[in-house]
Amino acid sequence: MNFLAHLYLSGNNTDLMIGNFIADHIKGNKFSHFKEEIQKGILLHRQIDTFTDAHPIVRKSKRRLHERYRHYDGVIIDIFYDHFLAKNWNTYSEIPLDVYVKSVYKLLEDNFDILPEKTQEILPYLTKYNWLYNYQFAKGIQEVLNGMNKRTKGISQMNLASEDLLIHYQLFEEDFTLFFKELREYCNSEINTTI
User: Fold this and answer.
1) Could you read off the pLDDT of 95-147 as tens digits, one per residue?
2) CA 58, CA 51: separation in Å to the nearest integer?
């Protein structure tokens, strides 16, 4: 899952949200300096990633892309799934997406000093280009894919993946809907028991 899903799956707990958002920029177990709830968010992020990577529906989605993108297929599916979450946001939240996204940006900016350096580097782009809100639009997804392709110096060819999204749009959306239902149940269970 990508940024929007990780944030959403943290519920209303702002420290969990911060931890879940920054987790990709935390190496190993080097997070004991964060307060406990942020640490739990980092661990939740990792549990979400493990659950997602092993899930048969996600693997089915990735197979549609594997021949063309190889090991970048998972990154692309994460972006596609965030697209479907943003596009269908009203199904999952009573808070309008634009309001939710603004509150997330404020939360991250208010806590900028504690964010890892890499998170601090991407935050201005995240807010300037309003990634989380623009995931719902084809143009927004294309911009994210273009950026990812640049980061791989064109090796990934992720900029072409919007073609695959269009070709298999209904199948990817069906995969997301089924998978996200299970992922939400899993996260609710984890938050209420172990976290």
Assistant:
1) 999 999 999 999 999 999 999 999 999 999 899 999 999 999 999 999 999 98
2) 10
Which residues are CB-contacts of 143 (< 8 A; sequence separation ≥ 6)?
129, 134
Span between the terminal Cα atoms of the chain, in Å: 19
What is the per-residue DSSP string for 158-185?
GGGHHHHHHHTHHHHHHHHHHHHHHHHH
Q: 65-102: per-residue pLDDT in tens?
A: 999 999 999 999 999 999 999 999 999 999 999 999 99
Yes or no: say if 20 and 108 are a contact pair by the CB < 8 Å rule: no
Q: Give the number of other Cβ atoms within 10 Å of residue 23's Cβ.
A: 21
- The Cα–Cα gap between 51 and 119 comes to 23
130 token code pair: 């309003």
Whether the CB-CB separation of 6 and 21 falls below 8 Å is answered with yes
Provide the whole-model pTM: 0.94
DSSP state, residue 68? H
Give yes or no for a contact between 106 and 119, defined as CB atoms under 8 angstroms apart.
Answer: no
98's CB contacts (< 8 A; 6+ apart) are 133
